[in-house]
Amino acid sequence: MKERIGVYICHCGGNISDYVDVERVRQAVENDRGVVLAKTTVFACSDSNQNDMVDDIKKHNLDGVIVASCSPKLHLATFRSVTERGDLNKYTYVHTNIREQASWAHSDDKIGATEKAILLVKAAIAKSRYAEPLYPNQFEAEKTIAVIGAGISGMKAAVSLSDKNTSVILIEKENKVGGHTATWGPLAMSDEKGSDLSHRIYSDLLQRDNVTVLTGSEVISSKGSIGNFTLKVRKRAQQAGDPVETMEFNVGSVVVATGFDPYLPKAGEFGFSSYENVITLPDFKHLIDSFSGKYLEYRGKRINRIAYIYCVGSRQVDGENRYCSRYCCTSVIHAAIQAKKKFKEIYNFHFNRGIRTYGKQELLYAESLQQGDIYLQSFEDAPPQVYAENGKTKVKIKDVLTKEKELEIEADLVVLVTGMVPRADNSIGTMFKLPKGRDKFFNEVHMKLRPVETVIDGITIAGTCQGPKNIVESVNSALSAAAKSYSYISKGMLETEPIVAEVNTDLCAWCGKCAEACPFDAIGQKDVNGKQVAVINNSVCKGCGMCAPVCPPDAINLINYSSEEIMSMIEQLAGG
Amino acid sequence: MNEEREVLNYDALVVGGGIAGGEAALNLANTGYKVLLVEKDRSLGGKMILLSKVFPTLDCSACITTPKVSEIARHKNITIFTESEVTAIVKKSENNFTAQITKKPRYVRVEDCTACQLCEKACPVSVRDEYQFGLIGRKAAFIPFSIANPKAAAIDIENCTLCGACEKVCPTHCIDFTMETKYYELHAKTVVLATGFNLFDPLLIPRYGYGQYKNVITSMQMEREIAPTRPFNTILRPGDGKVPDRIAYVLCTGSRDATVGNPICSQICCMYSIKQAQLLMGALPMADVTIYYINIRSFGKGFEEFYQQAKGMGVNFVKGKIGKIAEKENGDLILRYEDINEGVVREAEHDMVVLSVGVKSNPTVGKIFGRGELKLDPFNFVAQEDLLGSPSKTSIDGVFVAGTASAPMDIPDSILSAGSASSEAISYLIQHQEL
Amino acid sequence: MKKNAKILVFSTEKISDPAIDMAGLLKLHYPPTVYTITVPCSSGIKPSWILHAYEKGFDGVFIAADGSDCVFGESCTEKTGNVVSITHDKMKGTGIDPARLRMAAICSVCSESFVKQIRSFNDYLIKTLHA
Q1: Which of A42, A72, B90, B196 has the fewest Cβ atoms surrounding its Cβ within 10 A?
Q2: CB atoms within 10 A of CB B348
Q3: Residue A157: which domain range?
Q4: Chain A residues within 8 A of C105 when measuring between CB atoms
Q5: Strand B333-339 vs strand B344-350: parallel, antiparallel, or unpaired?
Q6: Chain A interface, mutation test: which of B256, B339, B420, B424, most A Cβ atoms within 10 Å?
Q7: Does residue B165 belong to any structural domain of this protein?
């Protein structure tokens, strides 16, 4: 039992103290049993407060520390390490969230928010009394890393890991590497061909002994966790009659780089599949890259006037995709410039919703304006319409520049500027249980603090599977993910969380229900003084607690979540 | 120059201690490399540490920056030089760089200073506080700002009258006017450039009246007014201390504007203005906030949703280019603008105008290397030689670029770029390991 | 008349607690008498804890379950369901309205759904216990 607990209540520079009366919280808990010190602080996470905490731990001989501040997802690790610097075991630290779950959630009710914060801190004190030192198990991490998806992101991650003398298994579902990029001609911002870019990265990969590239292969199952994943990979038969190969790899970490799908318009969406001269941006790019001739032709017809309709599948007012796909404005403007340079008598009409050529990409927009492209911007709630009249395809728009007047343009070709959507095939996401964001792309732990990590330890995300990106951004994210995955395995030893199940052998009368409930086969049977009892394999136990509720004599508890702890917290939250 | 130079040896030199340099230094240090982090200012944290909250999550900026900065400051593999400049870097051979570093005196022994602020109270000299972007003054003996790292006093020797008042009151006797500039020669195996960006100077657009009309401020000044460590306890207009209730934002101030030599888009101004507008709506529920824009560029993860949220909250978005700003006698401002949706020239009255100033390159980075060695782009950003294949590689093998030193970028992109640069630097170090 | 019922929420570290955090971030308000205890997985909640909450004065208990997103495997849904049904039986046995225990799967970004669920639960509890 802790007898010397220090409590710190954070203002968060107003984020908490604007709604929660932090001084009242302090006064409400300072005389609680075991509390020897209760302080408020403007920023608990600041260096000066961290130093004060270390000094306090030593000066007041604290045996437990509590910080009431933001979500533990942000700073649990920060304060655990402060506790360690004060020579306390980091598991004696207890965190409580009075920002996301008090001041912000109840910013409409300052008294209610303060009352709640008081009880949350009291419950944390109750939990702190039970927080005993724990010691993680150490184990050796597998030195190989798997990269799933061999588009530009996946290949760059593999190159980067290989450079760090790490063995890589690069697994690609398709029979070819390079993803979408390998199919493109000249790319925006460098004019290098996508196929060339892909080829030079792939050639670089092929020269390396420590990279295994598996095309036509899929990961069909994954077992284990950080430091020790076992992936089962199935390689499709390359020719009829070949056997299907199934392989197993042990890897320490996985970089997921499964990319995006281009948005496929619905039938009838801006005339798609109703009129044969309505095509998507990828189709258009392939057309101008592959077609040679003085004049551009599509399906045997000469193309002079091209209408580009922006934000198809992105920034939907009614649909599900609320987000901006960020690459398409630049990509289509670049393509339109290419078309005009390559073919005679091309007239470009851009039906946009505000051009987003951010950063240096703005120069492309300026170039396009200079070459005479026409830009027409629609109102957000009134998208342009595509229709046919007398055998001609026309686009109608209420332009923001001309307000009430409707403009109508005849087009030989209508290009739907389609955005990025998450992969329809979510098998990898489902397999690793990767959470998704509001946009349905894989979600990082924290956009700024841990941008390539997922809540699944050991799994990082690279490129467009995390959200729309252009190639530069994808490569930056891939190299970051590679460095992060490398950091997991580079030290050789990893620690397991010591939060595992514990059996009270006095109460246990071995019935096997716990072993049945355990999804990890971590529970066995053992003879203790002539009695059969359950025994937990600590290196296999993941600390889910599924075994605890099914035990008839209530002989199993999860460390840190024992019935005593939870019930004492409940008592505090109920109001003491 | 013949100063004595102390010789230092590190694996990596990181130039710039903002969020990108800090991230890169941490990644290198966590992999086991010894890093020297050189920052020209008195504190780590760059521009981010001075921000209020960050888009699109509205996390407080300090909550992300200060623990990160504190982790850097405490890391056993990182040595930090503040108030220091890298004056020259020469590549002798692969894996072998020599850098000249000048460390200016702080006139305070940081390790002994307790940040008690007694020197601040004693100092008779008041000057413009650059960390509050001139909204208030500070003393010549001062703590840069409340969450600075290191949190220690400094003497602004340019403005100091050497009266000795601070020395007399200092309880730990940590003020030392005998400190001198120190010169170092560093041997490092790789270099990461994270020299950041400069804000556009709105004095270059006289028709907006910045510097002339007191109630025309920059977005960075507004950032300080709404930050947790803000100078006033509320939002005031500088002219008369009135709480404003009609606030205007002028987007693209100094961006997408060839007439001021900056035709590119700064990438961050739309979003930080929308963020400030949301925060203002929260702080001043009765205020009207209008954003004058050309295009809203909310392109990142969660950005478009954030923009829509601002519209839902009642922030006024007007598509229009500002021609001219004029001041009324009472300090209110008249904005003359072309309303693009209506196709007419209009005037609107506001009591405070915020200029959403853009991102400019920091040209000092080019001068560190020998003539022409480090290639810059036409805007003096560090050129990315293999933009699509290896965005953090520069024209010099073994020198990598992180964050806004190469282009305008928001914080998430800067952090990914720093991750990329440090990843390349680690690869470079491993590939050139002496066996 | 009371406006807010006292509700204990069991959330899970990696899935539903982030959603509850995001509700705060987005300032989606719900009654401040809703308190959260976070556990690794919803299938590890013991019926005795839930019963203890009623005994100590909570009006309702809400399990913000992992559902099929659970990082510990598919069996979570079924096992959490078992915890609920066993608890329901025990509640009936002691004369507690079983509707005072609710469960819903809350994904890591299901902030709006969390707040909606909590508000409707709150309305139910106020109507049945405090009207």
Answers
A1: B90
A2: 18
A3: 145-259+423-493
A4: none
A5: antiparallel
A6: B420
A7: yes
Report the candidate in B117, B260, B284, B129 with the shortest Cα–Cα distance to residue B200. B260
A vs B: CB pairs below 8 A: 209
Interface of B with A in 342-381 (CB under 8 A): 342-343, 377, 379
List, for residues A559-568, the tens digit of each pLDDT value.
999 999 999 9
Assess whether A208 and A124 both reside in one domain. no
CB-nearest to B267 from A78, A359, A363 is: A359
Which chain A residue has its CA at the smallest distance from C24's CA? Answer: A105
- Is the residue at C21 inside a domain? yes
Query: Which chains form contacts with chain C, at 3 or more CB pairs under 8 Å?
Result: A
B305 touches chain A (CB under 8 A): yes
Residues B279, B326 within the same domain: yes
Chain B interface disruption, residue of A358, A361, A446, most B CBs within 10 A:
A358
Domain of C37 in residue numbering reads as 7-129
What CATH number is given to the structural domain containing B84?
3.50.50.60
Residues A109 and A232 in one domain: no
CATH of the domain at B167: 3.30.70.20
Other beta carbons within 10 Å of C10: 25
Is the CB of A455 less than 8 angstroms away from the CB of C75? no
Q: Does C29 touch chain A (CB under 8 A)?
A: yes
Chosen for mutation from A16, A104, A514 (greatest number of chain C CBs closer than 10 Å) is A104
Report ipTM for this prediction: 0.97
Give per-residue pLDDT as tens, B54-97: 999 888 888 889 889 989 999 999 999 999 999 999 999 999 99
Burial of B308 (0-12, 13-18, 19+ CB in 10 A): middle
Q: Are B185 and B94 part of one and the same domain?
A: yes
Q: How far is CA B117 from CA A137, B98, B148, C47, C123, in A?
A: 46, 39, 13, 56, 53
Domain boundary among A360, A394, A421: A421
CATH number where C11 lies: 3.40.50
| Residue-wise pLDDT tens digits, B186-233 | 999 999 999 999 999 999 999 999 999 999 999 999 999 998 878 888
**Is A407 exposed, middle or buried (CB count within 10 Å of its CB: 0-12, 13-18, 19+)?**
middle
The contacts of residue B81 (CB under 8 Å, 6+ apart) are B36, B37, B38, B39, B101, B103, B184
- The 10s digit of each residue's pLDDT in B313-353 is 999 999 999 999 999 999 999 999 998 877 789 999 999 99
**Does A166 share its domain with A208?**
yes
Identify whether residues B135 and B264 lie together within a single domain.
Answer: no
Last residue of a domain, which of B358, B383, B406?
B358
Chain C residues whose beta carbon lies within 8 Å of the beta carbon of residue A103: 24
Give the residue carrying structure tokens 């003879």. Answer: A527
| Per-chain mean pLDDT for chain B | 95
Mutate to test the interface with B, among A42, A82, A356 (most CBs of B within 10 A): A356
Of A356, A468, A483, the CB nearest to B422: A483
Helix (H) or strand (E) holding A122: helix A110-130
B312 plus B422 within the same structural domain: no
Q: How many helices (H) and strands (E) does chain A have?
A: 13, 30
Contact: C32, A102; criterion CB under 8 Å: yes
Instruction: Give me the number of domains chain B comprises.
Output: 3
Same domain, A26 and A114: yes
- Per the domain annotation, does A576 fall within a domain? no
The answer to whether residue A570 sits within a structural domain is: no
Residues of chain A with C-beta less than 8 angstroms from the C-beta of C57: 574-575
Residues of chain B numbered 11-30 and touching chain A (CB < 8 Å): 27, 30
Tens digit of each residue's pLDDT (9 = 90 or more) over B234-246: 899 999 999 999 9
Nearest Cα to Cα of residue A18 among A102, A124, A79: A102
Q: Which residue of A has its CA nearest to C106?
A: A435
Residue B134 belongs to domain spanning: 105-180
β-strand pairing of C60-65 with C101-105 = parallel
Sign of the C-alpha dihedral computed for residues C37, C43, C46 and C50 taken in this order: positive
CATH assignment of the domain containing A70: 3.40.50
